[in-house]
């Protein structure tokens, strides 16, 4: 094991392009309870201290080293691996920082055990991050100034760390993190299967670098009879019972205990909230830069909620489509180094003189800046579902006896591979029409089962037939309750209980449409699609990892969407100009 006390000249080096990089392998970082974490550190070969950028995750530090040898891959490349997220090592060293990549407790070469998702119920990850950061700051190769680096899980770790207030952590730069952990896995109450991939190593992910050192929090803290009862209750859900992976997991939780915990907790509440980074963010006072690209709306939603919670210096940068960054991750480094140049090196480069919020607007491809989200004044206005699959700014005047509902029957995917989709479209826009913000879909629907999914996708359709996804909305029908935060065009659901639907009853379902920013150009149309499962392949899903879809409905369901004078099914969208077309 290289000794960090040796002179720089004695350290092993590797070459990256024209650059020589000094490597400190397998450092042992002591935690306050005696456990040690494993880390690698990369720096320039000149023997002097530098600011450090720390990356922490359970994905394995050796995997992150592929950034030195693997060209960045974009989806749909089959070589794309979602876990190579610690950043461009060579670029970090070139910018004169030490890149320190550590394995979290219970993962990789680190000691200790990991309990549940994000070590729920074990030693707080923020506590370990505090000890790790302060150890790095004390090393002779660090000048005492520490930031953090990395996307997704690495991004969430930055919030855990900053909330503990380690004195040497001067700022963080987070791209694509996950914050509200219920909303990370259950979108509108509908289970998202991508977390399974990250944990199990499926669907374009190497997965967590765990062996046998991760334990289920539910198995650790609940009596066996309670666990058996909760497993039996989950298996009563036809959606779960029809999905082999979930049936297997619930019967054999040792298969992957962290995923077992999530599947067993299908409702929001204390289990998620006690370690919700949105709650922890109230303790953060250091500068925070938040960056997220459009295309996966729940992550945009989370970044905005986090931005509005933070109290210290902060930035929010919403970038352009597509939704998935390269792996190894290389994007946003220019912005990150400007941020750290100011906060870690003390160079006044003007970044704090710029507006706090920057938003890329699809369609017009303009960047809009402001001090708040949304960056422009917004008027939420309706577009009504009308006969012949039209969207119009004018409501339907006919009653239900004349305006028959639209409908579709969806068989479960156990017996069909066809996903039925209803769609409604505007007329082509004659002038540019800008939308920035959060929206809603009000659906007056009748189903013949106690539950279903409502999945909406909003598209910008060009005259040549090309389409780009603008935003999505998800709602499990039994989660239709709204809470006190709801305003026009900005609905919220508590997701703290499931209320079965009375078959045959017409209910109003208000679906949250995640934040987006787009200009519909002349000749383009706005298209909304409704289904209860996701299409197995289309121009958007091709850009996501193979397992990035939602749990299908496991029972046959007939849906009727009413859109008459008494049942004004509609979209409520964030128009930025009063003279915008509807």
Automatic annotation (TrEMBL):
Keywords: Hydrolase. Pfam families: Peptidase_S15 (PF02129), PepX_C (PF08530). The keyword Methyltransferase does not apply. It comes from the Bacteria. Residues 337-572 form the Xaa-Pro dipeptidyl-peptidase C-terminal domain. InterPro entries: AB_hydrolase_fold, CocE/Ser_esterase, Galactose-bd-like_sf, Xaa-Pro-like_dom, Xaa-Pro_dipept_C, Xaa-Pro_dipeptidyl-ppase/CocE. The keyword NAD does not apply. This is Xaa-Pro dipeptidyl-peptidase C-terminal domain-containing protein.
